[in-house]
Design a protein that fits this description.
The structure holds 2 protein chains of 2 kinds.
Chain A: E1 5-7, E2 10-13, E3 19-24, E4 31-37, E5 44-50, E6 53-57, E7 64-68, E8 74-78, E9 87-94, E10 106-107, E11 111-115
Parallel strand pairs in A: 2-11
Antiparallel strand pairs in A: 1-3, 3-8, 4-5, 4-9, 5-6, 7-8, 9-10, 9-11
Chain B: E1 4-7, E2 10-14, E3 19-25, E4 32-38, E5 45-51, E6 56-59, E7 62-67, E8 72-77, E9 86-92, E10 102-103, E11 107-112
Parallel strand pairs in B: 2-11
Antiparallel strand pairs in B: 1-3, 3-8, 4-5, 4-9, 6-7, 7-8, 9-10, 9-11
Classes of the chains: A mainly beta, B mainly beta.
Chain lengths: ~120, ~110
């Protein structure tokens, strides 16, 4: 196990609703990245948080937003849910040090979101 | 942006034989290449990674090779065991700044006892 935890494990929502997913990073890690994994596909990068600020974003609309807290935990918020948002949402934590090669990303178990 | 292609999509191997999964990438600036194993209902687990300053890395039964000129890298699993059955993903990223990983589409590996 990586030490990265996510909650909840499963979630069912209806179209148009809003959802918040949570991630606790591995001890000593300061960076959290979020990925969306549709069924049968590889994870797709949503965004990354470093020092409580967004540090890079993939091809996802603004209704996907996030936060990082001083303890490095993070939230992913999705507004106006659509059927295509049904997926496994993964967070990964890593240690980023200025001027040094990036550390490995370690993934949590994911949150399975179903939008009806 | 980066595009990672992975082959084959499914692979069945007799227990004890070797398995090879291949990936190609498009961004010549990519220089970090991890491999993840994902079991049913779990998140991806890092099994091995390689940076562009080396051509090969080995960890017990698992090895990864990298050809930067051809922009392809491969995962080799020797002496396969039933517990190796899972979906394997390759990924690529640049080393500095935005460290997003771009993943391949996955290979479902089945080890036949």
């Amino acid at each position: 196990e990586t030490g990265v935890t996510q909650s909840p494990t499963h979630l069912i929502k209806t179209r148009g609703q809003q959802v918040t997913l949570r991630c606790s990073s591995q001890s000593g890690h300061n960076t959290v990245s979020w990925y969306q994994q549709a069924l049968g596909q590889g994870p797709q990068f949503i965004f990354q948080y470093y020092r409580e600020e967004e540090n890079g974003r993939g091809n996802f609309p603004p209704r996907f937003s996030g936060l990082q807290f001083p303890n490095y935990s993070s939230e992913l918020n999705v507004n106006a849910l659509e059927l295509d948002d049904s997926a496994l949402y993964l967070c990964a934590s890593s240690l980023e040090l200025v001027g040094m090669s990036s550390d490995t990303q370690y993934f949590g178990p994911g949150t399975r979101l179903t939008v009806l | 942006g980066e595009n990672v292609e992975q082959h084959p999509s499914t692979l069945s191997v007799q227990e004890g034989d070797s398995a090879v999964i291949k990936c190609t990438y498009s961004d010549s600036a990519s220089n970090y290449f991890p491999w993840y194993k994902q079991e049913l209902g779990k998140g991806p687990q890092l099994i091995i990674d390689i940076r562009s300053n080396v051509g090969e890395k080995k960890d017990q039964r698992i090895a990864v090779t990298l050809n930067k000129t051809a922009k392809h890298f491969s995962l080799h699993i020797t002496e396969t065991q039933p517990e190796d059955s899972a979906v394997y993903f390759c990924a690529a990223s640049r080393d500095f700044g935005n460290e997003k990983l771009t993943f391949g589409t996955g290979t479902r590996l089945t080890i036949i006892p």
